[in-house]
Amino acid sequence: MNSRLSVPLTVSTAAAIALGALSGLAQKKGSSPFPTGYRHWTHVKTMAIYGNQHPLFNHFGGLHNVYVNDAGLTSLKEGRAYPDGTVFVFDLFDIQSAQGAIETRGRKLVAVMEKNSKLNASTGGWAWEVFQGDEQKGSLQNAKPCVDCHASQKRVDYVFSTYTP
Q1: pLDDT in tens, 11-40
Q2: Which domains does the chain have, with CATH numbers?
Q3: Which one of 30, 31, 88, 163 is CB 3.0 to 4.6 Å from 26, fit for a cystine?
Q4: Taking a C-beta distance cutoff of 8 angstroms, is the pair 29, 119 a contact?
């Protein structure tokens, strides 16, 4: 009887390892889905980068809105490490300025930062994905610039945003 059990366990163990390896490969390609409904999440902050004086203007010039899902809200408020399942969304719009007003034009991108410590141990648990314009298919080819920039925030779990009541 033991030999009969060991064969199914070996096959199922092999299948589990294979599935785990495949899910790890998918994550490395940026498998975070488009964050449907994120504009109903908690709004964390708004910021505008305009004019070429800011070092990130060429990449992130425009109006930024940052949102966090319910999984990360308590950690954001309390300033502690974020649990797996936390998602931040960075919604970036192109802007124009006229007659003393700054208005949005088209969406430039939606960036997603999602915590999964098991799949992303080498990056503090975080993965990034970028959706260009209004596309809902990810386009991030290389997360190294995201990882490198967010590494400066390691002491606050790699997150730039803070909670303002």
Answers
A1: 333 333 333 333 333 334 446 899 999 999
A2: 32-156 (3.50.70.20)
A3: 31
A4: no
Q: Which residues contact 54 (CB under 8 A, 6 or more apart)?
A: 61
What secondary structure letter does DSSP report for 165? -
Nearest C-alpha neighbor of 140 from the set 59, 57, 38: 59
Which residues, in sequence order, are bridge partners of residue 115?
126
β-bridge partners, 131: 110
Amino acid at 142: N
88-107: per-residue pLDDT in tens? 999 999 999 889 999 999 99
The average confidence (pLDDT) of the chain is: 84
Q: Please state, in angstroms and rounded to a whole number, the distance separating the CA atoms of residues 56 and 93.
A: 14
Residue 5 has pLDDT above 80, yes or no: no
pTM: 0.79
**CB distance 128 to 111 below 8 Å:** yes
Residue 88: count other Cβ atoms within 10 Å of its Cβ. Answer: 26
